[in-house]
Amino acid sequence: TGHHGLEISGDDNLFTRFRFGTRFIHDITVEHAAGNVISAGSGIDLALDHHKYASHANLFTDLDAGAGARLWMCGGGANLGKHSGAWETFWNIRAARPQSWPPKDFAPDLINLVGLQTNQQSQTTPAGKWFETIPPADLTPQDLHKAQLKRRLAPR
Description:
- It is built from 1 helix and 11 strands; from the N terminus they run E-E-E-E-E-E-E-E-E-E-E-H.
- The chain is mostly beta strands.
- It is globular and about 45 Å long.
């Protein structure tokens, strides 16, 4: 129990196979961070905190967000702009309640949400919002990072 469960403020890190058995103010924080992968984990009510400072191009995949009451809850200074930069990808995020596109102050429309439990309709704009409402159980692959790594390491 504490303020930040995990804070990533660097590039190209892998945080995988975790289970938070408590609720932090910010369960997973990305700040000054790009190219990171957060995968195959769970928590009782995960907050994927984007703490501003230009975090972009991170992958969140195969996560059980638990209750799902605060997935987009973020911190960071009020005058620092949007919480996240572009190219964040959220893939196969499961929760007890339906999720929606993040609030306007979260990120520019250039982020990807695929396979979240939702009641909203898909909206797929190649140069903008990408919200593909595939039920998480029907999504293939379940873990986008694992599938991409397997393909990259396959003999040619």
